[in-house]
Design a protein that fits this description.
Layout: H1 3-20, H2 26-43, H3 47-69, H4 84-108, H5 114-132, H6 138-155, H7 159-190
Helix pairs in contact: 1-2, 1-7, 2-3, 3-5, 4-5, 5-6, 6-7
Length: 192
């Protein structure tokens, strides 16, 4: 456990908590967490997750803009339903990218866990995109991904990060409930 990991865990927890509350401040906090974890993952040779942090940085800027535009008059971020076909396409793209990145990192790097690292990174990008698009279903994918991340981080000896991801499962459950509740409230207001 390093000072870097401790700070990254604290900042990440705060960012996810703010995301679950649909607070716009989540985006700059999550951007800082990405930078911290990119460095940590470089140190422990989880290259797909290191690159993922850079891609998350891009997705965070995208989400920040999208959420700012998707606010209601009273300042609350709207929740948008995820159509089943879009969900299926996202999951298929995640699987395709997981295979391609896993193959590459397995054959051309000294990655510690190339297949698992690549799969979790790919599906995390799908979940991040869904979060940026304000889909409550993003939290369900985050729950699944975070369960596997806990195991991978325990295996790599990143105990504090494993604990963070275990806590993030709880935050994702909370986020899903809050976002579903907000979606029902918004549907009630529009009469749909």
């Amino acid at each position: 456990m390093s000072v870097l990991e401790i700070v990254a865990v604290i900042i990440s927890f705060l960012g996810i908590w703010l995301t679950a509350r649909r607070h716009l401040l989540c985006w700059p906090v999550n951007l800082l967490a990405c930078a911290l974890y990119a460095r940590l993952f470089l140190d422990v040779r989880l290259y797909a997750d290191m690159v993922l942090q850079g891609l998350f940085g891009i997705a965070i800027v995208y989400g920040w803009i999208g959420w700012a535009r998707g606010k209601r008059e009273e300042g609350e971020v709207r929740v948008v339903p995820l159509p089943p076909m879009r969900a299926a396409k996202g999951l298929a793209l995640g699987a395709l990218c997981a295979g391609a990145i896993g193959w590459f990192t397995h054959h051309y790097t000294d990655a510690a866990l190339p297949w698992m690292d690549s799969a979790l990174s790919s599906f995390s990008l799908v979940a991040q995109y869904w979060t940026a698009r304000r889909h409550a279903a993003s939290w369900l994918l985050w729950i699944a991904v975070d369960i596997f991340y806990v195991g991978m981080f325990v295996f790599k000896g990143l105990w504090l990060t494993a604990g963070l991801y275990a806590a993030m499962i709880g935050l994702a459950v909370l986020g899903y409930g809050r976002w579903r509740q907000a979606a029902r409230r918004m549907r009630g207001e529009t009469g749909r």
